[in-house]
Amino acid sequence: MIWVLAFSVCFTFTVTIGTFPAITADTQSTLAEGGSWEVYFIPVSCFLLFNLCDWTGRSLTAVCMWPGRDSLVLPVSIVARVLFIPLFMLCNVQPRLHLPVFFQHDGFFIAFMVLFAFSNGYLASLCMCYGPK
Questions:
Q1: Which residues cross the membrane (predicted)?
Q2: Is residue 124 a contact partner of residue 100, using CB atoms and an 8 Å limit?
Q3: Tell me: the pLDDT tens digits for 11-20?
Q4: Measured between alpha carbons, how far is 114 from 133 in angstroms, rounded to an integer?
């Protein structure tokens, strides 16, 4: 009876674990130019930001549980998270062999990380809340 929700949780974590930190930790700042931001870019914009936004998404399910359990929006939004993989790969991930850097600015990476982490926490927690019901 819960196969859609169970698949959704597994798929959410598969996309997350396949992307974070495997791809995201290799991203380099394009604004640092040897300054202290180069040292703190990955710890702050990758790890700290991911954990804060993931926690925020998980906490939000205590206040708001949208979309509903039987809504088609929930599994579609979970499958749509696959789009984060090419988005992160088109950031300044080093070393580069074949793909160009399409999103040059660090702001793109940070925005993608916020959406990626928040959606991970919110959608996974939402599925786990709906499962026992």
A1: 40-60, 72-89, 109-131
A2: no
A3: 999 999 999 9
A4: 29
Cα three-residue angle 44-24-51, rounded to 5 degrees: 45
Encoding tokens for residue 5? Answer: 């929700």
CA distances from 84 to 24, 33, 56, 77 (A): 11, 26, 19, 12
Give the mean model confidence (pLDDT) for residues 50-54. 98
Rounded distance between C-alpha atoms, residue 24 and residue 95, angstroms: 12
Can you give the pLDDT at residue 124? 97
For the residues of 56-112, what is the DSSP string, one character each?
HHHHHTTT---S-TT-SHHHHHHHHGGGHHHHHHTSSBSS-SSS-----SHHHHHHH
Predicted local distance difference test score (pLDDT) of residue 32 = 87
State how far the Cα of 18 lies from the Cα of 92, in Å rounded to an integer.
18
Helix (H) or strand (E) holding 14: helix 3-19
Query: Is the sign of the CA dihedral 11, 17, 19, 20 positive or negative?
Result: positive
Q: What is the pLDDT of residues 101-122, one digit of tens each?
A: 999 999 999 999 999 999 999 9
